[in-house]
Amino acid sequence: LSWRERLRIAVDAAQGLEYLHKGCKPPIIHRDVKTSNILLSHSFEAKIADFGLSKAFLTDAHTHVSTQAVAGTPGYVDPEYHSTYRLTEKSDVYSFGIVLLELVTGLPAVLKLLETGHILQWVRQGLAQGTVADVVDPRLKQQQQQCDMSSVKRVADLALNCTALNSNERPTMTQVVMQLKESLQLEIVNESSTRPYGGGLDINHSGTTATTSISLTELSGPSSR
């Protein structure tokens, strides 16, 4: 997947979560946002799926849902929700931040073979010691159409903001959508300036069904780190 395609997927998924939080009455918390719960059509339109763990607020005025047990997928669960059992919109924001890190790096949320153990710690460490080029999926750097690193950096920073330990410091999904659209526009401008004769995107899609979920194989290929 090219960087532009990844951004389009991110924007679509973010808009889906924004609708759950702001468009539904009462608001709904998905509670299991992860790459495998983002389905892609043949045209790479992304949809949020699997609402088996979702929770709705009792009324529009409520800001959280108290649960008796923590549910979700390891690696994506909001630490604040894990410790307080209080589910908020920002719980989904945290999980989506992990998804963004996967789109940037091509790595899974849980890194079993690395000392850091989790993608968030790995990215934080990589950015502290280097630049976004040190954590970006190497496949993006190898593509003929070079992606705009300033766009990648904006998304990496957004992902880190989404995964702030204090939920009050995280953006809303509305803010996430706006920032992702800005990053997508940067990439579109970059493509226009480096591809003077235009041309379509090279989409390598081998799926045979109407929808498929995001795959780390699709993101990084067999040589992913």
TrEMBL record:
It comes from Ensete ventricosum. It holds the Pfam family Pkinase. Residues 1-184 form the Protein kinase domain. It is a single-pass membrane protein. PANTHER family: OS07G0107800 PROTEIN-RELATED, SENESCENCE-INDUCED RECEPTOR-LIKE SERINE_THREONINE-PROTEIN KINASE. SUPFAM superfamilies: Protein kinase-like (PK-like). It is found in: Membrane. PROSITE patterns: PROTEIN_KINASE_DOM, PROTEIN_KINASE_ST. One of its GO terms (molecular function) is protein serine/threonine kinase activity. This is Protein kinase domain-containing protein. Keywords: Kinase, Phosphoprotein, Receptor, Serine/threonine-protein kinase, Transferase.
